[in-house]
Write a structure and sequence with these properties.
Blueprint: E1 3-7, E2 10-12, E3 18-25, E4 32-39, E5 46-51, E6 58-60, E7 68-73, E8 78-83, E9 92-100, E10 114-115, E11 119-123
Parallel strand pairs: 2-11
Antiparallel strand pairs: 1-3, 3-8, 4-5, 4-9, 5-6, 7-8, 9-10, 9-11
């Protein structure tokens, strides 16, 4: 069964850093655009970052630009989200999701093919 499992979340101080991992099983990430999304309590799920399967292009939400880096390691079938200079407003459950690159969709919350169950990031002093 295709599966994505996030890890790396936890409690971090403002200004701190975390690396989130998204490990795929049952399929290979090579042909998928991979997005990271987050959902804070009481808010809608929003896109954080996306990396293209074809050319490696990345994009980031304005709220995280300069503080977040997404990259993939196809050999490990894993995508990472490096986060630094974390702010309390970054507190959310972070999800990774895979979007088959040939299906005409892109990294949007309603266009992903597979979703992980999320990992909680709490930024608090």
């Amino acid at each position: 069964q295709p599966q994505l499992v996030e890890s790396g979340g936890g409690l971090v101080q403002p200004g701190g850093s975390l690396r989130l991992s998204c490990a795929a099983s049952g399929f290979t990430l090579d042909y998928y655009d991979i997005g990271w999304f987050r959902q804070a309590p009481g808010l809608e799920r929003e896109g954080v970052s996306c990396i293209s399967s074809s050319d490696g292009r990345t994009n980031y939400a304005d709220s995280v630009k300069g503080r977040v880096s997404i990259h993939r390691d196809n050999a490990k079938n894993t995508v990472y989200l490096e986060m630094s200079s974390l702010k309390p407003e970054d507190t959310a459950v972070y999800y990774c999701a895979a979007d088959f690159s040939g299906d005409g969709s892109s990294c949007s919350v309603n266009g992903m093919d597979y979703w992980g169950k999320g990992t909680l990031v709490t930024v608090s002093s």
